[in-house]
Every structure is written in structure tokens, then in C-alpha cells.
Amino acid sequence: MEIRARLLPKLIGVFTLLGLLAACDRSTPSTPTSGINAFTGAWRSPTTATPAGSCTNMTWSITAVSATTATINYSATCAGVPVVGTANGALNGMTLNWTTTGTASNGCAFALSGTATPDTATDLRVTYSGTVCGLPVSGTEVLRR
After folding, report:
1. Terminal CA-CA length for the chain
2. What's the gap between Cα 4 and its chain centre?
3. Mind listing the pLDDT tens digit for each residue in 36-57?
């Protein structure tokens, strides 16, 4: 009897613990937010004067394709030429590397590439370089939501 009297409080404690564990939420934890989500959405450049050889009036719409890739629909005026197209982006840490090629509205070819990094939740720093109609363009632009 004495052994049962000593074991009874311990057994009650074990069953109480098991009951508490059974009552815990056993749902699968949510997946952490992917870094690509920091980039998704609509972005545009503020109205500012831009030096020659740069791009102005940038608009970007970034859509996640996977946790590490995105499609960027964009428009801009580079070297005085309107360019519109789709770029492909790949996430490397918190930097979105992107590249695009196409034909501008005047029929000349362009090729651009660069990086995008979030400065804040509302600012995206975009660096770019390449050619538009055979003219070199490069620069940095801060796009805003």
C-alpha cells in the first residue's frame, strides 16, 4: 500500500502533463514569409530630374513566381527612348538580381540588368546598366510603393 501511495501523486502528475500536451495546438506551423515578398507589388520612381544616360519615369510591377524568383513588368524612358517589357528576377539573400532584353517602341534593341534591394518597406533601390539603341545607360533609382 505504501508504494501505491507514493506512486499515485506521480502518476497523477504524469497524466496531467499528458492531458495538457494533448490540448496543445498541433497544427503545422506557418511557413515564414519568403524574402521575395519584400519585393512584390507596384513601384514607381518619383518625379525628379535625371542625368543624361539614365532612365526616368520607371514603373515596376513585381510578381513572385516562386520563393526565390519573380517576374517584373516595367516601363521607363531610357536615353530618351520609351522601353516596356518583362524582366526576370532571382533572389540572392535580400538582393533581387534582374535582367531584360527587348525592342523599344522605335524599333531599336535594349538590354538592361541590375539589382534591386529594399531600403525600407516603401522604398526599393534599383541599380541598372546596359544599352538602349546602342547607347550606354546606367544609374540608381529609388522606387516607391
Report:
1. 75
2. 63
3. 999 999 999 986 666 677 888 9
